[in-house]
């Protein structure tokens, strides 16, 4: 057993531990409804743009449903763990990859793009596994797999035996890019904390305004 294999196994166990830890920390919790009185001032309410952004972040990162979030976690781990090896193979002999895959696409600087493809797959895979900046990781893998699919169609036509693996990776990474990483990710924890801080600030703002008005009325009365 080589040192590289031992490091990969250790990284896999460490990633699984982190994923389980995030699973325990980011369980979907019910949010109590807070009644809003009709007399609340307009500045205390969120603007329509801020409310739309908040709703979009919640639907993308803080998805409800244990089974759905578990499925997204499994998809991230599966695609990330497998794509790492493809990136390592490219960087092991970038000149051969550039000659066999980049040159037929007639792209400039084939050796440069060979390194870009290899590092995109490795970095993007780790971002997906950890769920950290996962949209960027999914975008990196989607881009490399889209180019790979185009290369296979250009050189071999619509050969299902050549395209099947590329299409599976492309479909999985594109699905994660569109749907989001799920709640069991570092991104979900970060977004949840940011939204909680913004909600706390918005809740405290009316209380501060009411205290200021009460203080002003008391000063006028005196």
Strand content: under 5%
Helix count equals 8
Q: Could you tell me how far the N terminus lies from the C terminus, measured between alpha carbons in angstroms?
A: 84 Å
Computed structural class: mainly alpha
Radius of gyration over C-alpha positions, nearest whole angstrom: 24 Å
Q: State the low-pLDDT regions, or none.
A: 29-44
Listing every helix as H and every strand as E from the N terminus to the C terminus, the arrangement reads HHHHHHHH
Please estimate the helix content.
Answer: over 70%
Overall pLDDT score: 77
Q: Could you give a short account of the major beta sheet?
A: none
Shape: elongated
- Per DSSP E runs of 2 or more residues, the count of β-strands stands at 0
Could you explain how this protein is built, in words?
This protein is mainly alpha-helical and 222 residues long. It has helices at residues 3-25, 48-61, 66-92, 94-102, 110-130, 134-156, 160-179, 186-221. It is elongated, with a radius of gyration of 24 Å. The model is unreliable at 29-44 (pLDDT under 50).
């Amino acid at each position: 057993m080589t040192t590289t294999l031992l490091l990969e196994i250790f990284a896999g166990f460490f990633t699984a531990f982190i994923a389980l830890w995030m699973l325990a920390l980011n369980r979907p919790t019910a949010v109590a409804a807070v009644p809003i009185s009709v007399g609340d001032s307009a500045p205390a309410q969120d603007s329509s743009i801020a409310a739309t952004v908040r709703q979009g972040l919640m639907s993308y990162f803080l998805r409800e449903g244990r089974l759905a979030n578990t499925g997204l976690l499994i998809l991230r781990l599966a695609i990330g763990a497998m794509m790492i090896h493809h990136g390592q193979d490219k960087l092991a002999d970038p000149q051969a990859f550039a000659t066999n895959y980049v040159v037929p696409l007639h792209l400039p600087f084939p050796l440069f793009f060979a390194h870009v493809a290899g590092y995109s797959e490795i970095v993007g895979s780790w971002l997906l596994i950890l769920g950290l900046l996962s949209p960027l990781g999914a975008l990196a893998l989607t881009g490399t797999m889209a180019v790979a699919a185009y290369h296979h169609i250009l050189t071999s036509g619509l050969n299902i035996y050549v395209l099947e693996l590329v299409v599976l990776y492309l479909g999985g990474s594109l699905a994660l890019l569109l749907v989001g990483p799920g709640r069991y990710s570092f991104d979900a924890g970060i977004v949840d904390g940011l939204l909680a801080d913004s909600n706390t600030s918005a809740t405290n703002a009316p209380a501060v305004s009411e205290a200021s008005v009460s203080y002003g009325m008391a000063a006028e009365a005196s």
